[in-house]
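Subject: for your reference before the review

Hello V.,

The reviewers asked for a structural picture of the protein, and I figured it would be easier to keep everything in one thread rather than splitting it across files. Below is the amino acid sequence we used in the manuscript, unchanged from the supplementary table.
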Amino acid sequence: MKAPKGVVIAIALLVVILVISVVTWSLRVQLYSTRAPFSAFLILLILLVAGYVFMEQARLGRSFPVRKIPAFDAIEEAIARSVEMGRPVHTTFGFGSISSSMAPQYVAGLGVLAHVARLCGKYGAKLIATLGVPEVIATTEEIVREGYYSAGRPELFDPAYNVRYLTDQQFAYASAVQATIVRENVGANIVVGPFYAESLIFMEAGNMVGAFQIAGTARETQIPFFVLVADYSFIGEEIFAAGALASGDKETLASIRAQDIGKFISIILIVLGVIMLLGGFKLVDSLNWVWKFG
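And here is what came back from the structure prediction:
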């Protein structure tokens, strides 16, 4: 089978960079910044090429299955239970600016919101989406509108009720979300995105009203709180897989396979580093390649 032109170009680019790197290393020339070791750049480049290759294959019709994620499957159960109890569904995906380093987590949260909105339309549930990201107010409103309209329930969409922008100030946002959860007596509390000290506040508020709780974040310092209190949790990069599953887009699902390659490389380096450390050799010193004159 003939490889796509884009794949050939990406692999050729990787080979050229490697050849240039080897030549400069043999000449003892500093080619990369001392603050950014070349090994990190090389791993990033491998992941970019892998992602591009898999996405090209997805465009050609290849499918990339993603393992089942219990927290994702539980979303439908949470919404159905809320309808049975006659209580609304609440979801939120954080506060701040989408132009920050947390942008991928915001996007994953929006993907989960789209899935929640479609299910709310399917079951006729009332949805309350609170947010603290002003740049995506219109996007959030459109996602919720599409969820109800695609299910043939446009009469359930009320932007003033369904989409509530609170504030981009952390604890004002946390207090407002907590008040919304308690005041509206929500039946399901779905929290996915980048969260900080407010994570446990949201979980405790949901626990107070007996809500079915599903939470997830890629911020490792907050994962334990979600795992401890929520009924189901997305752990780390599972929120990105959830966003891909929610979209159903083949190219997005293909990008997950490239992330798996990154995890595989990380596991190999960790195991190899531990083994070599037992022999008194630090693998990290070999990975910090920074080449200089002389």
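For the response letter, the relevant points are probably these. The chain has a mean pLDDT of 84. The chain is about 60% helix and 10% strand.

Happy to draft the paragraph if you're swamped.

O.
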